[in-house]
């Protein structure tokens, strides 16, 4: 089915009314989340204090597994060829729905920042939790342990799973898990993400292919014998020039980003090695495939024109999100029950000072409010949750863990993710996720309706073919970027 027709299916799924039997979770679930709140904050802070890059989340993965093991989960570690990936299971397999919670944990390079409201890089530290994945993983554990308690106390059928998913930031960890069939028997997947507001709106994201163009040249003295050299950096710059000209001739909504991740070491040496790291995004995966193929042709031309050699290593590739309104309504109802994030005097002082560094400064009271619900919200970011959403009905949530006006991937996000404001927003996320999960476990009819919508949106002819074209995870992709 063509992409625009899939999106148009949204009009049809409005006929899928939320089943009247969809049950609200009991208050005991919230009590179980709240009883774990102190420990959840400690786990989130531990991940914040020891930020680890994609595929290097050794301590983070071990801590999340430890907490789940204490709660009675069975752990399968090192899945899908990724040492830090895991699947944790609790409940009755083969009876009742299987509900998955996704837990991210990786940090971003170059984002070290203290948990204070002014720019304060941490000496000797590079990485930082600029996307709040420390809170992401901790809150999922907080929700999962509460659901496990409810399953045990109620004797209900069903299984709750936590998927420890590494390297969301450019490593496409969930794609390897989906490709390995780890979601094949899952009925519904839930996730959440830190943000500067509270929303259960469902919508699309951008499909994305990322990779590294590497040029090989011939080194020489840049002054004494430049004629003997062939500059790999020239190849990179020629590629970048062609990519920038290409921007005029790609479909609307296409995003092309790059950095020169290796441009040589000294101006007086003709560099024999250079590298450009590229992302290509669009809501339609087919457009992404086409544009990255054109860039590979441009790299060949750049190499020919500069007397160098060019290769391309794909590092990531993710689908856009496939929304689900039936599940979105369940998440919205759970969010309305929990509400927004309430600041105390210390939070307000922190937020007011931090906002002085932001170009946009929404009212701080917006952290306590809920954004309007929508089932068709357009998004500009990319996530490997997209691949999960094309394999199993999936629903997401965001809560106000950051000061209103804070963008993701900023030092301000790092600061709030390590502050009490972040912990409060993550606790709200854990409460909402636990409520939504138990509501689904209590209502097979809702799960069936979500599956029906999923099938309509995806289309009868759909076949999942990953955008990621590499056999094994690039476990050292962050390390090599430093070399």
From TrEMBL:
Keywords for the protein's UniProt record, in alphabetical order: Hydrolase, Signal
The Peptidase M20 dimerisation domain sits at: 209-297
Organism source for this protein?
A: Stenotrophomonas nematodicola
| A Pfam family the protein falls into | M20_dimer
SUPFAM superfamilies from the xrefs?
Bacterial exopeptidase dimerisation domain (SSF55031), Zn-dependent exopeptidases (SSF53187)
**Top-level lineage group:** Bacteria
Signal peptide (UniProt feature, chain positions): 1-22
**Chain segments annotated as coiled-coil in the UniProt record:** none
Query: What name does UniProt use for this protein?
Result: Amidohydrolase
InterPro entries, alphabetized: Amidohydrolase (IPR017439), Aminobenzoyl-glu_utiliz_pB (IPR017145), Bact_exopeptidase_dim_dom (IPR036264), Peptidase_M20 (IPR002933), Peptidase_M20/M20A_hydrolases (IPR052030), Peptidase_M20_dimer (IPR011650)
Could you tell me which Gene3D superfamilies the record lists for this protein?
3.30.70.360, Zn peptidases
